[in-house]
Amino acid sequence: MKPMIKVNEYGCVINCKETFVGVAMKLYEGNSVFISWEDDSGHFDIFLKWKADSYNGKYQRGMKWNDIFIGIVGYGFYGFELRESKTSDSYYTEKFGHYLGVGMYEFINGVRKELHRLVREDF
User: Fold this and answer.
1) What is residue 123's predicted lDDT score, i.e. its pLDDT?
2) Domain residue limits at 102
3) 48-85: per-residue pLDDT in tens?
4) Is residue 49, in this structure, part of any structural domain at all?
């Protein structure tokens, strides 16, 4: 059985291993993911996409076509490489231009880690 993306009583996505795996699997399958997410730090609408179609190859700010692209409505958009290790809160704050809370950064790190695991297992 495939992992499910967990939601709270309001239908907002919440942090847990099942959510990280579920979102990562959707991305790995080629889907875009648009979710309403919340924890104690706030409520955010988030768009995620892995491996965007590329027609250029020379992107600014070090982004690459095979990054995981994360957009947080009202805050910013950035492409992050897949990695297993945790990225610091300050790095995310720099890229999105705002501090978005520990829970948000746990979500991003969790999804990146699980997607990295899926890609690694495929090789």
Assistant:
1) 62
2) 17-122
3) 999 988 776 667 777 888 899 999 999 999 999 998 88
4) yes
CA gap 61, 102 in Å, rounded: 24
Q: How many domains does the chain have?
A: 1
Residues with Cβ within 8 Å of 95's Cβ and at least 6 positions away in sequence, in order, are 76, 78, 80
How far lies 102's CA from each of 23, 79, 93, in Å? 19, 19, 10
Q: Compute the distance between CA of residue 83 and CA of residue 93 in angstroms, rounded to an integer.
A: 18
Q: Are 11 and 30 in contact (CB under 8 A)?
A: no
CB 26 within 8 A of CB 118: no
DSSP state letters, 38-59: EETTEEEEEEEEES---S----
77 assigned to some structural domain = yes
Q: Which two tokens stand for residue 65?
A: 């076509």
Q: Is residue 1 part of a domain?
A: no
CB 33 within 8 A of CB 15: no
Where do we find the tokens 């297992």?
Answer: 121
The one-character DSSP state at 73 is: T
**In-domain check, residue 9:** no
